[in-house]
Design goal:
This is Gas vesicle protein. It holds the Pfam family GvpO. InterPro entries: Gas-vesicle_GvpO (IPR008634). The protein is 25% helix and 32% strand. The longest helix has 16 residues. With 130 residues, the chain is α+β, with helices and mostly antiparallel strands. The protein has a 4-stranded antiparallel β-sheet with strand order 1-2-3-4.
Length: 130
Amino acid sequence: MITNDPAHKKERSASRKPSSPDRKTSGSKPEQSPQEPEESGPGRVPAPQAMRNAAQQLSELLGRAPQSVSALKPTADGWEALVEVVELERIPDTSSVMASYKVVLDPAGQLMAYERARRYTRAQVDREGR
């Protein structure tokens, strides 16, 4: 009889596991955050990975270590990030020249483009409406 075959029993038991729909719908799938509406697309890296990719790949191109990723947003074509980089170190540290780079990533997290958006001293504070 087929039911005595160990391989057949293994297949039947494996096929029975997902038969409980109540278990799957009771919170096993995380909800999407409103900040990442397109993250669920096939091949799209999650936001934390996109941040790491933006910083790492820009660092490779510029030869400077990024200080931080100050902004990240999903787009129809992937991700956009603002990465802060020290362009010129000075003493005291507050007079160092910083730059914000706009980095464009594809959905897989690969750098497609970048441009320097702004330069400023580390001690500079943004003002409202500016």
